[in-house]
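Example 3.2
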Amino acid sequence: MFNDPNIVQINRYNQNINNVFAEKLNYELEKRILNENYINDNEKFTINIKRLISTDELILEFIFKNNNINISDVSIYSSIDNKEIKFEKMFSANNFNAEEGYKFQCILSKDSNGKNITFNKLRNLLFEINILNNRNRWEKLYALNYKFNLVPLQTNIKVEENANIKLISDIKISHFNKVANFEKYDQYMDVQYLNFNFIPTQLKQGFHSNLLYKITASKNWEKSTKQSSDIHQLDIYNLNIKNETENEYIQNKFMVQLDKSNKNNLLAYVPSYSYYDKNLKKTIIGNESLDAKEGLLIPLNFYGNFSHKISIYFNKNISDIKLTYNQEIKKPFFSYLNGLIKLSVLEKNYFESVPKNWGSIWFKNVKNINNLNIKFW
């Protein structure tokens, strides 16, 4: 259905991706030292934030590394926007790996304890680190307060050659103590993006076109040149699109659907039937004609800027991203004067030879347009 030789593809899958529209996450860290007895220059603090795109839910991981021999155990208290969340220890005395550090994990579903915490609501993440000393007493060591500011996607996008939409999928933030001043730290941050690159196809006049966009899906880390293709079904599970096109030359709304059978290469296509009505001079969306075929037919009398618009749904918090694609139609397909298909009109001078208000009209030089199966008279 999508191998129409009459569709002109603008870009291939291996194009150089540009026209980027990306989410951005800004953050700052407030670090309070509550006990200086165990501070050393091998300390490392790491948070991993994994986002489930289809639901905007979170999986959080916190790792504290400190090789002080006087520390026998570590516990943490954590809260998001002053709501306590529970982390599970991912280590024990029997399987503790000093090189990996003390690892904690928390899976936050959208209904976790009624807190309804999702990625778009992540503003403040607090960790209080407690250690068990060699005298079997718990002591407070640090309070780390991460403050986040999410810069959302642009909601109205004009598509040129492509539109590469980048959603944050994973975040890794690490901090290392500075030896000279433990109140300060070195930091490292990397972001993994889930990319949806929308590549439009030009619609050809006189043909029913099925395909609107080819969409390549991929993942990559911002600070790594290696691009991963480990797209999971959950990454695209709730992804959906809808037609938002309004055109006075098109009667009724056509449908746009998403083919997700190949999770790395998706297709946005038109399953609706359409045909041209010569009396209304409009494309009619429907199958109530022998001339109706599957796909979108550009109105045969149309010229100028032909645009179509879709809205994209990723999840309930990213639900109304609109893509508009404009295509210049230089000449109408069917016109007496300047169409790709021309009809010449011969008319007698009825002012001189016919004493009535009607003249006689003949048509000649009609080109073959059997591919449309359109009857003009």
